[in-house]
Amino acid sequence: MHADSDRGTIMRRNPLRERLEAGQPTVGTHILSAWPTLVELIGHSGRYDYVEFTAEYAPFTLHDLDNLGRAFELMNMSGMIKIEQTQYTHQAMRAIGAGFQSVLFADIRTVEDAKTAVDAVRAETTMARGVRGRGRLGVGMRRDVGTVREGGTPAYVDALNDVVIAIMVEKQSCVEDLDAILSVPGIDMVQFGASDYSMSIGRTAQYAHPDVVAAETKTIETALRKGLHPRVELRDPAQAGRYLEMGVKHFCIGWDVRILADWWDSKGAEMRNLLDAPAKPVKRKDAPGAAPRKPTRKGNARAPGRGNYA
Question: What does the alpha-carbon distance between residue 23 and residue 68 come to, in Å, rounded to a whole number?
């Protein structure tokens, strides 16, 4: 935790909020591992604005959230946490307290669900009007406020109001009532979930089905019309073209587990094929007494000094 000279407090600035308000594009990536070193590796690339910890699918402890929060601060990045429907208030509170600055709420079905999500992030106070003061969060002694230094201060309320709220549009009822749900004040980002949506309409895993594609298009167009920020998840940036043409500027690319699985599948197969191939005898044509030839580097050979592990 470090001082913010603009606010004169130890409360952190929220880089993701700043980029949204400036109309700038954002790039994030997903991790299911709670190992903070992954956040550092991502941060060192200099290519990402935030990391989404996809907690909905991952095992973790409250100590893990604190350590991830420290890594976000070290890398000057925002952290987003994705939480499932039964944990909105508790996990949002603990994640924000650990240093996360954005929350992605899964399984939104109704207007009331969306209101509950927003309330789980904002302070309960008369200091701020409307949705910015009608929340459920009170004073806490957690990392985000320096434990005992900024709890209950105006800077704390401001920081809660800066938390970026994202929702998943992934249920049939949500798409059917989308206009009303996206009219709930406080929502910032909107993410369509093709997997859950296709399941909810009885078209499981049929991501290219016209009904699924139409629902995704409706989600993006409605979000843009309401001045919200549609976000798209991609396995590979090569898939971005259609969404860029629609006006999408926010992408979350790759999952740590998918990256590992793809590498293990492809490279394991390569290694196995090399081992299973018939051995070829090595023929040397060096003249008698000639000095041994030095190996040459070709193709994707690693740079000197990095070793086979790097």
Answer: 27
